[in-house]
Recover the amino acids of this structure.
């Protein structure tokens, strides 16, 4: 089973980076905040480059949002259809 990727807000990232910039070591800050030290170092590099992004920073058009919603609904409906097919086959077997 895949472990879901942990996502952090921009504010959380900026707070963590600020603590490193204020003189604390990346290792100490990472341990205190429950982060992997390399993740925090990557955030510091991104902050210095002006590219520290948060969750969902990518621009998503309304069309992409609708397409994503429809794909999810399509998957859900396919699962429901498979359940109904199996139930129909099960109950049809009892009738004969």
């Amino acid at each position: 089973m895949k472990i879901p990727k942990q996502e952090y807000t921009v504010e959380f990232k900026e707070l963590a980076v600020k603590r490193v910039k204020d003189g604390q070591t990346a290792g100490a800050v990472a341990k205190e905040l429950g982060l992997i030290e390399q993740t925090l170092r990557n955030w510091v590099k991104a902050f210095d480059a002006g590219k520290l992004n948060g969750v969902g920073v990518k621009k998503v058009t309304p069309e992409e949002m609708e397409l994503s919603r429809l794909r999810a609904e399509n998957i859900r409906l396919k699962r429901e259809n498979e359940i109904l097919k199996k139930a129909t086959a099960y109950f049809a077997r009892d009738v004969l």
